[in-house]
Amino acid sequence: MKASKNRKPKSEITYKSTYKDISINTGKFRNLGVYTNMLKPMLGQINALLTHHSRVQLLRFDLHLPVMDYMPAASANRVITKFFKKIKQDLSSPKWNKQVNVIHCWAREVGKSQNGHYHCMIGISSKVRLGTIYTETSMLAWKLLQNRWSELSGGSLHGSTCHVVNRSNKKELDTAFFHLSYICKVRDKHFGTGEDYKRFSASRLKPKEMTDQHSTDDRHPDTLEVFFAA
Asked: In whole angstroms, what separates CA 182 from the centre of its chain?
């Protein structure tokens, strides 16, 4: 029997310690499998960003919705889509030195809260000043993220950390991606419920070479051959 053309491909899970020779946070004894179809675009986007900037910052954070007001998953996904759109508009302004190469990814998880929450990453040039999450009063990057999410959702941002990765520095990438790969973990994703909403989304920044050639290829790059060829 032929598979239905509309059937979505099965998500593959890995418990290996690396993906494309880059460290990831897994462990079968801890039930920390991760989805490879989420790792692929996230790693590809980091690699694409490194073609535009030799030194980048990768910010990891969680976005929580208000606990008192129930919001369906599809509606919440529209809010987070708008959030990243607004953030990119902000960063492209002269105030932020016209940051046009910005990447992101998010994964929706449902734990104890009925509204669930989002594990997120955003990647930007190292020229952007970050400030701090809870004590910085000026409008620097962490505060921008926090204020925009509160404005759009009424929820809160829980910051984790920022990783700085220099082009061709595999050790820095290993450290960063090991931490970021937690976004792709299997636990709490709630696949297979029959509900038609996204559990994961990623930006589609093209590598600099493709952008310069005006390529129309929308495929995500998924290797590090440019900088980390064997």
From this structure: 11
Q: Of the candidates 138, 190, 189, 181, which has an alpha carbon nearest to the alpha carbon of residue 160?
A: 181
Helix, strand, coil percent values for the chain (each to nearest 5): 35, 20, 45
Q: Residue 18: beta bridge partners? A: 23
Query: Of 37, 29, 17, whose CA–CA distance to 183 is shortest?
Result: 37
Burial class (CB in 10 A: 0-12, 13-18, 19+), 223: middle
Tokens of 127: 């020229």
DSSP structural state of residue 89: H
pLDDT in tens, 128-187: 999 876 665 566 999 999 999 999 999 999 988 899 999 999 999 999 999 999 999 987
pLDDT in tens, 53-83: 999 999 999 999 887 677 888 899 999 999 9
CB atoms within 10 A of CB 9: 7
Question: Cα(130)–Cα(104) distance, rounded to whole angstroms?
Answer: 16
pLDDT in tens, 102-134: 999 999 987 666 667 899 999 999 999 998 766
Has residue 191 got a pLDDT over 50? Answer: yes
Question: Cα(191)–Cα(46) distance, rounded to whole angstroms?
Answer: 25
Confidence (pTM)? 0.83
| Six-digit token string for 76 | 């919440």
